[in-house]
Design brief:
It contains eleven helices and eleven strands. By secondary structure, it is an alpha/beta fold.
Length: about 290
């Protein structure tokens, strides 16, 4: 085993267990030098030039200061796509991939589904859907200038056609003549209560945008209420509304959707057996 790899791994074990420290060491070496895991195991990382070693050391120091590895490398794999991420956007989680997979499975029977991703951040949900359903007309919105720029850059780099809009979903009116008649609205809105901060990792609290994470303790369904109220105007008959949720509030969000005319509502567990998705179809009320 190379001395450089062993040195990096030893440093990282001050924060991580042996397995995670080893995995992160391999990721950093590959990103800094282009060396594969096999190259490292064969000791080729000991031949790195001075410039590469400086870059590598800077990356290691950032990780040791609790910066997420995804921000250090500037990317993460999501729904088979390399998504660029930076401190202005939330780092996509595996649970959100499950939301994308579910949405795509419900939409694949439609020839040209029209989809809206609310609170797009890095664009991962919208881009994941567009990648899996190329004929879909995909729109995405966010309030953040920085997030929208990152999302647009991701779309351009990945050559995926998504239309982006700057919108405050909490505003009373989101008038936009392109935002109507959707087959599906998908959203992973802020849903962590402030009181839950004490349970969270330091690298999340100190680096990821709080506006994309937290809601007031006294109004945990703030975004779900706003999105559901607007969804009944923006969706087609039988249109899908699908949320990623705080596992504590599955029943409340399901009830909220049903109160607004959604049927076939389901609470779906994620791979960790936590309530994580609520989905339903909108039934428009027809006058007799």
């Amino acid at each position: 085993m190379s001395q450089l790899y062993s040195h990096i791994r030893k440093q990282l074990t001050t924060l991580f267990d042996e397995h995670e420290a080893s995995a992160i060491a391999f990721i950093l070496l590959e990103d800094a030098s282009g060396l594969s895991r096999t190259d490292v195991l064969m000791g080729r990382d000991d031949l790195l030039g001075e410039e590469e070693k400086v870059k590598l050391n800077n990356m290691v120091q950032r990780v040791l200061k609790h910066e997420p590895i995804q921000y250090v490398t500037g990317k993460t794999l999501f729904a088979e796509l390399n998504i660029h991420v930076a401190p202005g956007v939330l780092i996509p989680r595996p649970e959100t991939e499950e939301l994308v997979d579910l949405a795509c499975s419900r939409l694949k029977a439609l020839s040209t589904p029209k989809v809206l991703d609310i609170g797009t951040g890095s664009g991962c949900i919208a881009l994941g859907i567009k990648n899996h359903i190329p004929n879909a007309e995909v729109h995405a919105c966010d309030i953040s200038d920085k997030a929208l720029q990152i999302a647009k850059d991701n779309a351009k780099r990945l050559n995926l056609d998504v239309q982006f809009h700057q919108i405050d979903i909490l505003a009373p009116d989101i008038a936009n003549n392109k935002l109507n008649n959707f087959d599906a609205i998908i959203s992973n809105p802020p849903y962590i209560c402030n009181e839950e901060k004490k349970e969270m990792d330091k690298n999340v609290l100190e680096n990821e945008p709080h506006t994309a994470l937290f809601v007031p303790d006294n109004d945990p369904l703030l975004f779900y209420k706003a999105i559901t109220e607007k969804a009944i105007v923006l969706l087609k008959e039988k249109g899908i509304l699908a949320f990623e949720i705080n596992r504590r509030f599955g029943c409340e969000i399901k009830e909220l959707m049903e109160q607004h005319g959604f049927t076939n509502t389901e609470i779906i567990k994620d791979q960790f057996c936590n309530n994580r998705i609520v989905i339903g179809n909108y039934e428009k009320k027809h006058n007799c």
